[in-house]
Write a structure and sequence with these properties.
alpha/beta; Rossmann fold; Arc Repressor Mutant, subunit A; 5-stranded parallel sheet; 52% helix; 11% strand; elongated
Length: 226
């Protein structure tokens, strides 16, 4: 990053409505300052840290975000930090490093990194990576929000309604489900109707899709009803 580029960035203003957060973890203060300005001028909210431990002390955020992470750090290295935050699937990671080799790159990418850049790199290349990462974060957060809604609906079902749902989504007819549960076909039909209303499913196919997204356990086929 040359002096002209840095001076041109200083003239930009922060977009106040920019909600995505770009975390930067790098022990080089000049790199942190330069990336902070670049990120801010691009319309995102930068948060910079000098070590992995410092970053880990920051509470997790459920907002669109990504992590620009140096491999070589004074405490935990970047690859170790990646492993510690593996559950943060809404936070894609872009690695940056002054030196890198094939095994290091392969390890990072296999663990889910979206990009691995070697310093010095063009600003545009990093910005493209951040845009892609933020887009992925948006999609993952939207998916998680949808799953939470489905989970809330599922929790509202009674025990019997869950049993009926588990059977109908694997193809049981009302009569078959009644036989397995020891209740009448008419009762199954009533429970099934309530399940459809509470889950807000417009069709059986939609209910099956909901069950799949909720990762509900499958019910083995009954030998009496091949």
């Amino acid at each position: 990053m040359n002096r002209t580029q840095r001076n041109s960035r200083q003239s930009c203003t922060l977009q106040q409505d920019a909600t995505p957060i770009v975390f930067v973890v790098d022990d080089d203060v000049s790199v942190r300052e330069s990336l902070e300005l670049l990120i801010r001028c691009s319309g995102w909210q930068p948060e910079v840290f000098g070590s992995a431990r410092e970053f880990l002390s920051r509470p997790r955020v459920l907002a669109p975000n990504c992590l620009v992470l140096d491999v070589t750090l004074p405490d935990l290295n970047g690859l170790d930090l990646q492993a510690l935050v593996a559950d943060r699937i809404e936070m894609p990671i872009i690695f940056i490093t002054g030196y890198g080799d094939v095994p290091m790159t392969v390890r990072a990418m296999k663990a889910g990194a979206v990009e691995f850049l070697t310093k010095p790199f063009p600003d545009d290349l990093l910005l493209t990576g951040i845009r892609d990462a933020i887009s992925r974060s948006h999609a993952q957060l939207a998916h998680e929000a949808q799953i939470r809604v489905l989970q809330e609906r599922y929790v509202s079902l009674s025990r019997r309604e869950r049993e009926v749902m588990a059977l109908v989504v694997v193809g049981r007819l009302n009569k078959q489900a009644g036989g397995e549960l020891g209740i009448s076909e008419l009762t199954v039909k009533a429970h099934r109707g309530r399940v459809m209303r509470k889950m807000k499913a417009n069709s059986l196919a939609e209910l099956v899709n909901m069950a799949t997204r909720l990762h509900l356990p499958s019910i083995p086929r009954c030998n009496r009803f091949p």
